Amino acid sequence: MTTKQFFVSLAALVLPLMGQAKVRLPHLVSDGMVLQQQSEARLWGWDQPGKTVRVSVSWSSDVYTVRTARDGKWQVKVKTPRAGYTPLSVTFDDGEKTTINGLLSGEVWVCAGQSNMEFPVRGFGNCPLKDYNEVVSTASDVRGIHFVKIPSVMRTKPQDDADCQWKTVDVNTVEDCSAVGYFFARKVSSVANVPVGLILANKGGSRVESWLDADNLKKYTQEELDSGKMVKKFPYDYLRPLLWGNGTFHPILNYTVKGILYYQGCSNVGAPGNEYSDRLKLLVEQWRRDFGEGEIPFYFVQIAPYIYGDGADGISGALLREQQERAASIIPNSALVCTNDLVYPWERNQIHPCQKQPVGERLAFLALNRNYGFKSIKCESPVYKSMFVEGDTCYVSIDKTYGGISRYDDIEGFEVAGADKIFHRAVAGHFWVAGQDRRNETIFVTSPEVKQPKYVRYCFRNFELGNLKNCANLPLMPFRTDKDE
């Protein structure tokens, strides 16, 4: 090779590198993004090692300076303004400027889990959304709701970027948004008058183990992490551990968020003992650690009635719901919404029930009450408190009723059993207790087939629809009194 040929070859190598010297941003940091309001929001990217990057913002005169590390990575925190609908911009300057536009300051929530969270407004095949046309045709009436869908991909190593794009909700885009996420955002935005950003990082069919990182899987589970053995054990890729967290969730962990919404559990039906609740707690601790924002809210959804492998009258799904209630009790700053009333009788074999609006709105009621100061919004379902037996009748005390229940007669979903633990359908109704604390209500439960009742269950089967609600029209959580016997 001549000297001239050498320098020509060298230039061919160097010039592309020089062209890459400009700041490179992750897809998530881009036009239309929503910044968490009144926070120190993280922005990050890549550049040449040792390069100085200056970050200026349209809402203040502040300029932030950061120097890239040896691997070319950089990260900076910027102070964000109060929520508002005025478009904002951020400029990154390393000698050549890059500007992102159309930003809003608002509230950022992650929509995580499996297919009932992934379920878009357009629905899935043979799984429509209730009132689809009404939802779509009114979407342009809302303002300031932006969303970004993280592609559902598997990776053996944690990923720092994902090919995604922020979208603004309108009549043409809303069908791509998570239905549960959209209804949550619509309610929060309208009541709190703030823009809402949704980061959709989920995968249909995924297990809780799909999102745990390698360290947690190795320390707390017996999950197989060798790729070949994993594929052999789980022919269906959506059941595989680790990979979805690496590919679909890890790219968002630098983002500054308000909280996490989670709808998952169907693929963990059948898990033994307290395995599911313990692992869900572990996952929440992992995510909170990685987001670095403390104990951010974690609001999640109870799996809906469905005929699992042990049939409509089986209890494998009921046991998972019970684990979800346990998880809510052991995970700080968390809450569970009940969906027992949001399935139609003809959806017995439908894993994706069509009523998604109440699910998203119940999550929003939690956020509005607990995080945005709207204490008049009631957000908790009634729960079992205690029971006593007199003769052939059980008297069940219900807590968190907000002063009353939805019906006095024709209450459905209760069963009773004697010492043999064979449960029979029961008649239930309101029972007045003189001097009773109005925060509680008492229900009488009786069955002509059980002369000496000992145990009560409510909707504790895979597919059992109840109709008892509190004054906020929120359904009674399924329960059983024979758990520890």
UniProtKB/TrEMBL annotation:
Keywords assigned: Hydrolase
Coiled-coil stretches noted in the UniProt entry, renumbered to this chain: none
Single GO BP term: carbohydrate metabolic process
Presence of keyword Amino-acid biosynthesis: no
Domain Sialate O-acetylesterase, residue spans: 107-363
Pfam families: SASA
UniProt keyword annotation of Acyltransferase present: no
Molecular function GO terms recorded: sialate O-acetylesterase activity
Annotated protein name in UniProt: Sialate O-acetylesterase
Native source organism of the sequence: Hallella mizrahii
Source taxonomy: Bacteria, Pseudomonadati, Bacteroidota, Bacteroidia, Bacteroidales
